[in-house]
Amino acid sequence: MNDDSADKLGSIFVDALTTVLSTMSGCSFDVLSSEIDSSFYEMVGIMSFNGKRNGMVFISAEETSMRILCSYMAGIPNNEVTKDDMEDALCEFVNMTAGNAKLLTNNTEQMYTLSPPFVINGKNMSIMTKKRVDVISRVLGDSEISVKLKVMLY
User: Fold this and answer.
1) Are 63 and 85 within 8 A, CB to CB?
2) What distance in Å separates the CA atoms of residue 6 and residue 8, rounded to the nearest whole number?
3) N or C end: fewer C-beta atoms under 10 angstroms in the chain?
4) Distance CA 44, CA 125 (A)
5) DSSP H helical segments within 26-149, as ranges?
6) Residue 89: pLDDT above 70?
7) What is the tens place of the pLDDT at every residue in 8-24?
8) Are 9 and 56 in contact (CB under 8 A)?
9) Domain that holds residue 121
């Protein structure tokens, strides 16, 4: 069960990602699911953060969703988007999301510092933890795009 500070920080990350995705794509995104599971889509952008609560933020998307987002973001045709383009875009999404959330937490007890972003690729990925971790999980999307956000606090 998440405590109030975890839920509050999770909401900040959800708002930050929604803003980033909407700004970069021009699309409107809704929360499609709040169900917590350990799975990720095939492309995952990750950053860790350290503060009163330490944690990690994960943004994952299937290749088809990343291709569309990258096309919108870079203004290039969908069929010209490369894997490198999608990885760069995903790093930028996680960087901008965590950065926007950081701005909202500056000068509060939830203030934190960030690591550099990185991306991992693969199918059927999951992350399991052995100690108590608060998890905030949301799937954001529209009719074409689905993006999964997870914030793990420990």
Assistant:
1) no
2) 5
3) N
4) 9
5) 63-74, 83-105
6) yes
7) 888 999 999 999 999 98
8) no
9) 4-153
- The total number of structural domains in the chain stands at 1
The pTM of this model reads 0.91
Q: To which residue do tokens 């999951």 refer?
A: 126
36 is written with which tokens? 């917590």
Q: Which of 11, 3, 19, 18 is nearest to 53 (CA)?
A: 3
- Token pair 């990690």 is found at 56
What CA–CA distance (Å, rounded) separates 6 from 125? Answer: 24
Q: How far apart are CA 82 and CA 70, in angstroms?
A: 9
For residue 102, CA distances in Å to 23, 48, 60 come to: 18, 12, 20
**Do residues 149 and 78 make contact, with C-beta atoms less than 8 angstroms apart?**
no
d(CA 63, CA 42): 7
